[in-house]
Amino acid sequence: MGLKDDQPIEGKDLQDFTKLPRKPVLAYLQKQVLPRSPRQRPPADFPYLAMFLPTNLWKWISEYVRYRIGPIHPFPDYTHQEQDTGVYPLESDEASAAGVIRVALAGDWGTGTDEAFKIGKRIEDFRRHYAIHLGDVYFVGDPNEVKANFLGIANPRDSFTPCCWPRGLNGTFALNGNHEMYARGYAYFQLILPRLGLNGAGAPSGQKASFFCLQNEFWRIIALDTGYDSIGIPFVEEFVQPYCALPDQLLEWLRDVVFHEEDSRGIVLLSHHQYYSCFDDWFTRQAEQMAAFISRPVIWFWGHEHRLAIYEKFQAGGGIEAYGRCIGHGGMPVDLPPATRLHSQCQVEFVDHRKYVSDEDLDVGINGFAQLTFAGNELAVDYVDIDGNTIFAESWRVDGDGNVERTAADALIGSA
Is residue 1 part of a domain? Predict the structure, then answer.
């Protein structure tokens, strides 16, 4: 499903995604200045004032009305799915060492930039059994963007090379992000999910909902949907931040299917939005909701915030205890650590502070993704950058009571 080695890449420029606001109205507006073909090198400065030209303003209004105004897509669950509960085996394949399972995670990858192409190639090189995107297809997750920036289907209105999310050997999944919901979720639920899921009979079986669980004897990977509640009433949402709470159907699934009886496996949570952050906003509602089901620390991977950051164990308010790992640096311009941290309550152990050297000469960090390797009750996580370098590595073990313990950690570059 990826590009051939000799196929030229004409991806989008990172500069067109810099300073992208997390507001639907402004995301629709900035989208209008994206060129129809790759910029000449060296690139020109991003023409922010061009967003307000009459022709672009009219396109902005028409697209906002078309995709943002109206009812959001109904929230699908597993209630009416025959033989599908959303719980799937986490398993290896015959060609791999016994019991070794590889999972690739990347967040905020759906840009179609040159960097997204390169991260996709790194994921393919990992020979992953499962490939999971943590959400966000830019700018607003409408059908053309979903096709060109995630499904590898060319947009007839431009000449960029379409970018396809890498397939997993056993299965491929995608979480819901706020940018997918800027177009009310229709392209995500109707175009992305049917093309994903477990592999069967030579083709994906379809991802039936925006939440799921992969599990084996020792581990559970539980994927949550924090994106569905990330939008509100059009225009009002520009001033009032939604809670990003877990929908009722997802909570019922957790209660009746996933945690219907006592369980002692290690828990790895996946979501789009961060639970906490030293540098950005917090979204604690889902962690408070999860406290009804989880009473021991978890390893939690999220995106949304465009950086790589490894946190010490932390608990906010009535939420669960979590070792937070922010990996929202898949395809967007990466935020460099600020001089002053917004929150001092949670302690960051490692953050990638390096500047990305490219022909665009932007003041941004380096893109990357996470490689998870499960072997029995052990889990190794390598955080790999766009050049294929592992810049932070850690190892975990789960005991018979489901408690996770980190057994090793190694920062291979200096941390800010």
Answer: no
On whether residue 6 sits in a domain, the answer given is no
- Residue-wise pLDDT for 220-255, tens only, equals 999 999 999 999 999 899 888 889 999 999 999 999
Domain housing 70: 14-411
Peptide bond into 42 cis (omega under 30): yes
pTM check: above 0.85: yes
Please count the structural domains in the chain: 1
b/e sequence 41-50, b meaning 16+ C-beta within 10 Å: eebeebeeee
How many whole angstroms separate alpha carbon 399 and alpha carbon 404? 7
pLDDT one-digit tens code per residue, 11-21: 999 999 998 98
Q: For 72, which DSSP code?
A: P
Cα separation, 169 vs 94, in Å, equals 11
Which has more confidence, 213 or 97? 213
Alpha helices by DSSP H, 91-161: 114-125, 143-149
Mean pLDDT of the chain: 93
Q: Decide if 53 is inside a domain.
A: yes
Q: Which residue has the tokens 């019991």?
A: 99
> The domain that contains 344 carries what CATH number?
3.60.21.10
Residue 196 lies in a domain: yes
How many CA atoms does the CB half-sphere of 306 hold within 13 Å? Answer: 23
Are 21 and 143 within 8 A, CB to CB?
Answer: no
For 66, counting Cβ atoms within 10 Å of its Cβ (0-12 exposed, 13-18 middle, 19+ buried), the class is exposed
Q: What is the mean pLDDT of residues 330-339?
A: 95
